[in-house]
Amino acid sequence: MAQIIPASELFDLTRFAHRALFREDENVWEALSRLKDYLADHLNSNVTAVGSFGAPLPKTVVLWDEKVWFDGFEILGGDACKGTLRVRIRGTETTEATILYAGCVLMDPHIQIGRGSVVEPGALIKGPTLIGSHTEVRQGAYIRGTCLIGDRCVVGHTTEVKSSIFLDGAKAGHFAYIGDSILGNDVNLGAGTKLANLKIKGDSIRIRTGEGVLDTGRRKLGAVIGDGTEIGCNAVTNPGTILGRRCLVCPVLSVRAGYHPARTVIR
């Protein structure tokens, strides 16, 4: 491996709608440095007409057909991540309607939420945040802004996310912290996973590889997790942890910082 960790080492970006965030001639975490500007250029808010910013929504609303529906709909049920969540709107049944349940909080209008996605009661979202299609933001989730969440993702119950990227199918279902991190396609974080992003000393985060040490130049960097990796419950990754594709981290572990190649089992 060369003294650079490119995105292609960790992710298949072929189908990712936001692959332009990543550049092959640089280390993968540099995408985080561009995230705020990328969102400024690509985020198209679709919640402006919802109103009630900074306070819990007083009633459930649906986004569909470029409109905000405050009534005239019926939620029939299904699984958002599987694309089977059905809503009937004025006699038309669809799986492409976005549901914002009463009690969720949108702190500002700089938020875009994709088709067929769900924001459950008690979730709080700050902008700028771009959420893809058929994604679940579950009860009590806290999205702190400068976040890009892909398609078919889960931001789970009492999970906090800040300044991070989820590729398609990434899931953090329960009690997780994801700060200044990138989750690859179909990554799964077990309940209670914490991706620590700040060293106790607060100095620049350095990543040890098989060929030396890379200074990221970043004071905050959580984990970059390759496609298909699974992390067990209550594991903690130290700042500057890079996990290759299809790694397995057993539960209740502290994962050392540095580069862990594809298919590594950490136990």
Key structural traits:
267 residues, mainly beta, UDP N-Acetylglucosamine Acyltransferase, domain 1, 11-stranded mixed beta sheet, 5% helix
Describe the structure.
With 267 residues, this protein is mostly beta strands. It has a single domain (7-266), classed as Hexapeptide repeat proteins (UDP N-Acetylglucosamine Acyltransferase, domain 1). 5% of the residues lie in helices and 34% in strands. It has 1 helix and 32 strands. The chain has one helix spanning 30-42, and strands spanning 61-64, 67-69, 73-77, 86-89, 92-94, 98-100, 105-106, 111-113, 118-119, 124-125, 129-131, 136-137, 142-143, 147-149, 154-157, 160-162, 165-166, 171-174, 177-179, 182-183, 188-189, 194-195, 206-209, 212-215, 223-225, 230-231, 236-237, 241-243, 248-249, 254-255, 258-260, 265-266. Strands 2-1-6-9-12-15-18-21-26-29-32 form an 11-stranded mixed β-sheet, with no helix packed on it. Strands 7-10-13-16-19-22-27-30 form an 8-stranded parallel β-sheet, with no helix packed on it. A hairpin with a 2-residue loop joins strand 1 (61-64) and strand 2 (67-69). The longest helix has 13 residues, at 30-42. It starts with 29 loop residues before the first helix and ends with a strand. 45% of the residues are buried. It holds the Pfam family GMPPB_C. Residues 125-209 form the Mannose-1-phosphate guanyltransferase C-terminal domain. This is Transferase hexapeptide (Six repeat-containing protein). GO terms for molecular function: acyltransferase activity; nucleotidyltransferase activity. Keywords: Acyltransferase, Transferase.
